[in-house]
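Reopening this one. Same input as before:
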Amino acid sequence: MLVLLIMLVIESATTASAAPSATDILTSAREQVARQQVELDGKLREGDTIIPFRLTQSGPVIRYTFSDPTEALQLRLGDSGPVLEAITGDGVDKIAGAEFNQRVRNTAITYEDLALRFVYWTNAKVVGEDYINTRRVWKLELLPPDHASQYSRVFVWCEQQSGALMRMEGFDWNGKLVKRFEVVSVQKVEGRYLLKQMRIEQIRPDDGRVQARTYLDIKK
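Same output, byte for byte:
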């Protein structure tokens, strides 16, 4: 996800390389997302609440379109960082400052999560290797440049062959785990592996229990 859009496409590769730098891994992940051309239907599910949306991507411009009420969230990925905008009948509003802490459609996903801001943080390092669903991954630790983020630290797990992000864990400024994104399943469409389902969990920092669980489902 985390981090949502970077996980949408997992492209196949031949072999995993020797340990690259964290900067190289994150650059590859950003580039992987920015070159896609897709148009898919999806939905967010949290308990009995179902929120359908249309996902359209043309290169570095990605748009989520919702109905009832009508709204579009547009993410523009650039070399200097992401720009997230809310597009409604009243015009275009650039998401900034404290607005990044707001939740998307009252789910566990915040605007900061959707904007992928943490994959642009330059204070990053590879801290180990792991396996997620039989896929070999690098584990990275990312630190924000200032206190503007809701996260004091983010760990991400990147698939070694493709660079796709498979899991993200975000910690608050007291060092407590508060958010977890994880790819549950993928699907093969026209030779490409696309996200099928992702789970997003909001964690209570006081006891580590799941406070809210949102699923992101993508149709072929």
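So the earlier flakiness isn't reproducible anymore. For the record, Residues 1-16 have pLDDT under 50 and may be disordered.
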